[in-house]
Amino acid sequence: MTKFSISQDYNPSLQKYKLVFLGEQSVGKTSIITKFMYDSFDTAYQATVGIDFLSKTMYLTDKTVRLQLWDTAGQERFRSLIPAYIRDSSVAVVVFDVTNIETFHQTTKWINDVRMERGDSVIVFLVGNKVDLKDLRQVSIEEGEQKAKELNVTFVETSAKVGLNIKQLFKRITESLVVCEEPKSDNSSELQEVSLGKNGLVTIDNSCAC
């Protein structure tokens, strides 16, 4: 598995990957990105208008990767903009709110939209956010795992508020991208099925979708 490190002297070629964040309004797409980028959380909700863009460079032991993060609006009036941003994406991160079961049901539609635009040439992550709100939970980790198996995607639970699994989510995304770029061989490294129910970090599939 590729290890992460920061080196002042190492300056490999920079690979850029587009990540598009999808899901219903107020599920926490912007909060996940903000926590990852700035380690901050805004308790005052502000809906994303249209599309927002940020980027962050990840330093690995053998290469440098720039993640281009596209944050899409969940409101219906902006839906017509989204297919254009899906078309050239490397990763689709479909987010739902574990305290709102309707947002969970809608993830099937979002993932189908991704595959309609990109086929199987995109990595898909299903992310259940707001797991810190335990008493309000409507979607269990088992239900998330089951849907991920059915749709052949990777499942992760997060809390943007407390930072649970935020760094791990982007680490898994980066590792998945690197694995997809590596030449296939009989002894090549693959993502193996891992279930860590206590902290919500769950990987369902064991191969990249590229």
From TrEMBL:
Pfam (any one): Ras
Any Gene Ontology CC annotation: endomembrane system
Matches recorded under SUPFAM superfamilies: P-loop containing nucleoside triphosphate hydrolases (SSF52540)
Taxonomic superkingdom: Eukaryota
UniProt key word GTP-binding: yes
GO term, biological process aspect, one: intra-Golgi vesicle-mediated transport
Residue ranges the record marks as coiled coil: none
Record keywords, A-Z: GTP-binding, Lipoprotein, Nucleotide-binding, Prenylation
Gene Ontology molecular function, alphabetical: GTP binding; GTPase activity
InterPro entries: P-loop_NTPase, Rab, Small_GTP-bd, Small_GTPase
Similarity annotation: Belongs to the small GTPase superfamily. Rab family.
Protein name from the UniProt record: Ras-related protein Rab6-like Protein
Organism field: Tribolium castaneum (Red flour beetle)
Gene responsible for this protein: AUGUSTUS-3.0.2_06800
